[in-house]
Amino acid sequence: PEKKVLIVYAHQEPKSFNGSLLKIAVEELTKQGCSVTVSDLYAMQFEPRATRNDIFPLFWFNMPAILKGWMDRVLVQGFAYDLSKVYDGGLLQGKLSLFSFTTGGSKEKYAIRGDIRYLLWPMQHGIMHFCGVKVLEPHICYAPENVSEEKRKEMLAAWSQRLKTLWKEEPIDCSPEWYFK
Ligand code: FAD
Ligand code: ZN
Question: What residue stretches are annotated with the Flavodoxin-like fold domain (predicted)?
Fold first, then answer.
């Protein structure tokens, strides 16, 4: 059966590097026969504030506010998790997630400041795993603003390449060891 892919995209500028990563993902996954839906949060003017009309989940940690608002408003109790149905028992079992993001800091800087995996703990484990979603290796493009045009093209090509064999990937072992060992 055709795979359904939902890309939740949080960048204001279509001409940005993230915009290019998005375009590649849509093209490649569509070519593979996946049905691809893009939630372009800024273009949709997505309302990130959860109001009294929403069923309220817990409080997540850090990502662009608009994306966090999406998590807050979409991954609600009764749909994504329930009080006794969390982590491997979460309600979104059978789904896969992948966090693709870019940084301002270089890979070396992150090695000094602390492993970037610490930042992924709340997103991958605290949100996705909590809801029963398995997690693929994150895709991180370090400092696209500060590298050469050639290096940027290389990073985009690597993303395109990865997507070709995406469905063969095994999820990570989303346990504390992966993040903090
Ligand atoms: P852009 O600046 O849009 O792109 C970089 C370059 O790529 C541009 O010159 C663009 O023209 C070019 N480009 C686009 N498409 C292509 C293409 N197809 N081929 C070749 N080149 C192309 N960083 C951290 O590391 N840690 C933080 O905690 C952090 N906090 C931040 C907080 C805020 C509020 C903000 C605004 C930024 C923060 N940053 C942080 C930096 C941020 O992560 C980077 O600015 C961002 O990741 C860069 O991605 P971009 O898509 O905006 O790049
Ligand atoms: Zn986990």
Answer: 3-54, 55-163
Give Cα 89 distance to the centre of its chain.
21
The alpha carbon of 29 and the centre of ligand 1 are apart by a number of angstroms equal to: 23
The predicted-structure confidence for 9-21, as pLDDT tens digits, reads as follows 999 899 999 999 9
Please state, in angstroms and as integers, the Cα–Cα distance from residue 28 to each residue in 15, 85, 107, 130, 140, following that order.
18, 34, 26, 29, 18
pLDDT digits (tens, 9 = 90+) for 49-71: 766 665 473 333 368 888 888 98
pLDDT digits (tens, 9 = 90+) for 18-52: 999 999 999 999 999 999 999 999 999 988 776 66
Number of domains in the chain: 1
CATH of the domain at 36: 3.40.50.360
Any residues with Cβ below 6 Å from ligand 1, and which?
A: 11, 13, 16-18, 20, 102-105, 144-145, 149, 152-153, 156
> What residue's CA is closest to ligand 1, atom 33?
64
